[in-house]
Automatic annotation (TrEMBL), chain A:
Classification via InterPro entries: Multihaem_cyt_sf
Keywords for the protein's UniProt record, in alphabetical order: Signal
Designated name of the protein: Cytochrome c domain-containing protein
Signal peptide span: 1-16
From TrEMBL, chain B:
Protein name as it appears in the record: Xanthine dehydrogenase family protein molybdopterin-binding subunit
One family name in Pfam for this protein: MoCoBD_2
Domain Aldehyde oxidase/xanthine dehydrogenase a/b hammerhead: residue ranges: 237-314
Membrane-spanning ranges: 12-30
Sorted UniProt keywords: Membrane, Transmembrane, Transmembrane helix
A GO molecular-function descriptor: oxidoreductase activity
Keyword Transferase included in the entry's annotation: no
UniProtKB/TrEMBL annotation, chain C:
UniProt feature coiled coil, ranges: none
Identification of the protein by name: (2Fe-2S)-binding protein
Domain 2Fe-2S ferredoxin-type: 1-74
PANTHER family according to UniProt: BLR6218 PROTEIN, OXIDOREDUCTASE WITH IRON-SULFUR SUBUNIT
UniProt keyword terms in alphabetical order: 2Fe-2S, Iron, Iron-sulfur, Metal-binding, Oxidoreductase
Pfam families attached to this UniProt entry: Fer2 (PF00111), Fer2_2 (PF01799)
UniProt-recorded Gene Ontology molecular function terms: 2 iron, 2 sulfur cluster binding; metal ion binding; oxidoreductase activity
Amino acid sequence: MIRVLALLLMAGPAGAEVMPSIVAPPEEGSVSPADGLAAWDRVHQVVSHPRCANCHVGSDHLPMWSGPEFPEPRPHGMAISGGDSRMGIETLPCATCHVTASTLDSDPRQAPNAMIPWQLPPVEMAWFGLDSAAICRQLRDPALNGGRDWVELAQHLQEDAGHGGFVAWGFAPGGGREAAPLGLQTHIDDVLKWGAAGQPCPE
Amino acid sequence: MSRAGRIARRGFLIGSVAVAGGVAFGAWRYTRPLPDPFAGTDAGALNPYVLIDADGVTLVAPRADKGQGARWLQAALIAEELDIDPATARIIPGPVSAAYYNRALIADFMPFAPTDTGWLAETARGAADIPARLLSWQMTGGSSSTADGFDKLREAGAVARETLKQAAATRHGLSRADLNTADGAVILPDGTRIPYADLAVEAARLEPVTDIVLRDRSQWRWLGQPMQRADVVAKSTGTQVYGIDLVLPEMLHATVRMAPWGGTVARLDPVAAEGMPGVLRVLPITGGVAVLARDTWSAMRAAAALDVAFTTPDTAGDQDAIWAALEATHDAGAIDTRRRDDGDVDAAIAPGDFAAEYRVPFLAHAPLEPMNATVLVTDDACTIWAGTQVPDFAVARAAALTGLPQTAIRLENQMIGGSFGRRLEIDFIAQAVEIAMAVPGRPVKLTWSREEDFAHDQPRPAQIARVRGRVTADGVQALDLTVASPSVIASWFGRVSSAPPGGDVSITTGAWDQPFAIPHFRVTGLRAPETVPVSSWRSVGASSNGFFFGTALDEMFATAGIDPMEGLLRLCDHAPSRAVLEAVRDLSGWTGRAGGQGRGRGVAFCLSFGVPCAQVVEVEDTPQGIRLTQAFAVADVGIVLDPVNAEAQLSGGMLFGLGHAMNCELTYRGHAPDQTNFHAYEGMRMHQTPAVQVRLLENGPLRGLGEPGVPPAAAALGNAIFAATGQRLRQMPFSRAVRFA
Amino acid sequence: MELIVNGQRRSLEADPQMPLLWALRDLLGLTGTKYGCGIAQCGACTVHVDGMAVRACQIRLADVTGEVTTIEGLGTPDAPHPVQTAWIGEQVAQCGYCQSGQIMQAAALLSLNGDPTDEDIDRAMSGNLCRCATYPRIRAAIRAAALRMGGV
């Protein structure tokens, strides 16, 4: 009951929102496994889109590039490494080119910027190149998703987007870049439906 | 204001001019005294290359400096004979004048291999003086500045020195023979030093002393020694002013957005762009649109947002159609040039012998300083500040555009941030003139965006070569190389002047002229239609023929089990070229293709611009991809005048060739390249650069080194990758087929 | 709008969206910082913001919160920075257009790593493009500067 109250309190915009969204979790178990799997499919459409997956890379710390000239994602040019810090190597941080800006927008082909320091997600959250089932199991596992339950996953999306972080950038990358599909609110709603259905994963 | 202009304004020296280094030939019209480039300026010009006033010595270096160090070397050549430390002189590019024609470049247009020292070839090269002077080309290109200037500039220094000595001799009632010079002063027999500046007025009134003897190399004080280029400090402190850095009072900024090649503006609505902050005017110009603004960024932002539509031409502008046109050119087989046809290849090559097809892509010049020009047009004059390799053509075009006489056009050549052939074009200068004509009395600086530079580069052409050959255990017996390419010479001449008649030798340069004694040896150039404008790209025809030729030979050696170094040496019948091959063999410690531990080595050779150059590249096949571990280059330039810079040119040329072979191509769609900026055209970067060793030899004739380092590189790398992996690469860029670490 | 550039407070009237590069070049007359690509692919515009290497073509004036150092502020022909001294000694420059950015990047590298290995150098410098391919001398100059700076 306490939990439900907390969830209700969370519903609604929070803070100075760059990209506002609402986290309104359905009652746990109120979504059927079939609907949950359908929701996951939509979540997967988003997280496997190059706009998202290109930075969710593994322990080689090599971000990927996509774009009109690169129909298939290829390693970031200039032999760039996110380094162990995932913020670039100390002597060439991501922020040398991907500056921290007061807007998400940037011109075509520029080094895109967010409103927080540019970085790769933690290495345990790598899913570039994985299939839908593998990514699903990973996002379900608090050991691999930053210690979050399904509601906290949605909150994470909301909070990041609210601050003009990478979630917001993925849905509004500017410069004519192809955005991640479906939009932030749908994505949050789908994560919650998937969660309320018990986080079912495809086989 | 330029040095010459400033001197003119002060007007306290009286000028007289002698032409040094001009070689007189034949009929009177060729031997007419050349015009005085400083006439009417009252400059203290002792000859077209030396000016002296109260502040000191100014040396004129008329060949453009794109980073190859030409400005410094020209000054050093004059200074060596003038007896001044070149570091103490001012160095200026000088005005545009027929006095600065380029003889060496024209000589290279002659149909004789650079190794041909026969009577006919030598005579023709000498006679090249005549058409060059008539055309009055003050052109920089073809690695010709050193060869062109070597005697001419030293003679200019010597004439000035002896004339200064004569002035001192006359003043003091002494004999010129008893005087000496050192460090910018005439030394009297009693040891008295008279600085040149004190003698300039008197010297300028004298008939120039022309009975001079150039000093032997053993007496050189600067040439041949490690020197510090005058521009190195400025270029290391951000104080070098390039054309793009020019600031003039009241200057406006501009950029352009041009139609795809061959297209025009179909529709333009300037209203929205003109309403953007900082924008002053949107201006249609020939083939596109210009935006005038208060700053460069406002101009570029508005140009990108411009509401404009372009027509596209109906000629084939897509990459597939371009390749198809090259294939069709091969199938049609109409010969453009056939400069080599030894023995009988058709009889010597049997069905089933070696045959292969090679492809090279369009390549952008993409120097790092984007194209720019600053122009001021007034009622009766036009001044151009721009870095250009062809000032004469720029002046002629500006005169045609403005309707002013050529004498009313002044061009101040600027230090150039890279060219690789791009600044043989005058499109950006013509655009700047057109824009400046719209705002008379206000200087306008036109700066291209990098995107405009990629879209409107006139690239090195894509080409297809077909090779047949016969090889036995004794070596290569027959080679038949046919190259299909559009003509860069016809394309370029058509843009800057008018197209010359006849075949285009450059299609097969770097192949037909190679010093190899192949019994049956034929090289044929076929001219393909021009689908997009094409131009000279560092080392021109040799940039691709070095790859075709060097790879084909390596393939044939491999077929016959011949070590490629041994195979090349066995074929080579030119002593300086053999010496270069032997030197690179020793420098690299060549023991064969195999390097062990996943390593492989490749060797390639190309004689271009008269310079034999051999290179060995070593690669390692790693889990991350092919890694270049070492590269070795040896070239023969006759005399190494500036060893520090020569090493840089050879190393840089090789790495330039390697980077493009690995990573670069332009592919066209609708007459515009898919590649819009450096993210899709990486070239060579630090992390892919191998350790480099170079060596320079001095056995052949004096030649320049800006280009000859490029041609062997691609073949040496491809041959090394074959040695390491067994994979044969017949198309550049190699990144299409292999991954580089 | 005010910026601190090379230790001096400079005021300028400019669109806050203007990239720092163009404000330096066109408004403040500091032309040592070069435009090469406009999209962080060449590094010719590299400056320091609070000591960190930043591509000036990417950062808008509105987002410059620290002190800016350009190549003119690093050292001068009469009093060069040790990295510049090394660049002059090795005669790195050919066309020289990229070298302001190379030097600023190298100075940032050496301020964080006084004794870089070849791999350290490659990793920190791979974003700085030199079309003349002066890389072997850039490596040599960085090693020479490291020695010089370590010896001070």
